[in-house]
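Input structure tokens:
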């Protein structure tokens, strides 16, 4: 059935849905822009870190490249669980089931710690074989990468917990505070720690800047979550009653509502 066969009322509703309303556009822009900026901030921080690593010489640069490859896989469960928890929390917030949101957060943190902790154990236990995949038999580079793993890998436990908390708060539309926390920790804390500790620790200041930044980020995320102001945010504008009625009617046929029959 084409659009010409639809009743005039439904055709009007169909055309209206093609154009987002101004209040909805404002919500999408206000929430989507900071979320996009979070990725830009993380990418920019990674570029700065690569520039600092390159100053340490060829072997350290090669070792960091191998460590980064392993850390990429280590981040995947935390990011995936953060997205999953955000979706589950959003569904329950939309349904008004705030009593479930705390349990979702708890389960997300527990699973994240268990899975990421297990992966860190495997990475540290089999570091020789894993690093050899990228560095071959270069003993100097492997030793440098192993030092990085010891100093920085465990920080991804804190990174994963922060991703869970940010995901839950993002489910209710809180995106600006996580962005500001990322800017502060990735540039202010991490680079600040590096510049202060480098005269004493040398290149190790780079690897220890990871847990330093992750610790501050997690601390601020916990404070923001427990403070509870994020629960009062309203993500979407109220839906009009007529819009709901048109949405329901558009899914029906003269013979009755479309339903699977298989």
């Amino acid at each position: 059935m084409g659009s010409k066969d639809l009743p005039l009322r439904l055709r009007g509703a169909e055309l209206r849905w093609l154009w987002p309303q101004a209040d909805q556009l404002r919500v999408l822009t206000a929430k989507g822009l900071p979320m996009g900026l979070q990725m830009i901030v993380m990418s920019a921080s990674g570029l700065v870190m690569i520039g600092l690593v390159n100053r340490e010489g060829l072997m350290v640069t090669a070792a960091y490249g191998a460590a980064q490859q392993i850390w990429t896989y280590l981040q995947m469960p935390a990011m995936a669980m953060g997205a999953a928890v955000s979706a589950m929390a959003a569904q329950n917030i939309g349904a008004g089931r705030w009593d479930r949101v705390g349990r979702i957060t708890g389960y997300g943190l527990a699973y994240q710690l268990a899975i990421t902790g297990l992966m860190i154990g495997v990475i540290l236990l089999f570091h020789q074989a894993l690093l050899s995949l990228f560095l071959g038999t270069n003993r100097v580079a492997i030793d440098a990468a192993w030092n990085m793993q010891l100093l920085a890998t465990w920080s991804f436990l804190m990174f994963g917990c922060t991703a869970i908390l940010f995901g839950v708060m993002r489910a209710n539309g809180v995106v600006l505070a996580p962005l500001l926390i990322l800017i502060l920790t990735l540039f202010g804390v991490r680079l600040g720690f590096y510049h202060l500790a480098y005269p004493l620790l040398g290149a190790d200041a780079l690897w220890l800047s990871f847990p330093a930044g992750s610790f501050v980020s997690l601390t601020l995320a916990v404070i923001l979550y427990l403070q509870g102001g994020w629960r009062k945010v309203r993500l979407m504008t109220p839906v009009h009653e007529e819009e709901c009625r048109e949405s329901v009617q558009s899914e029906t046929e003269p013979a009755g509502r479309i339903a699977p029959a298989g």
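The first strand starts at residue 252 and ends at 253. The chain is about 80% helix and 0% strand.
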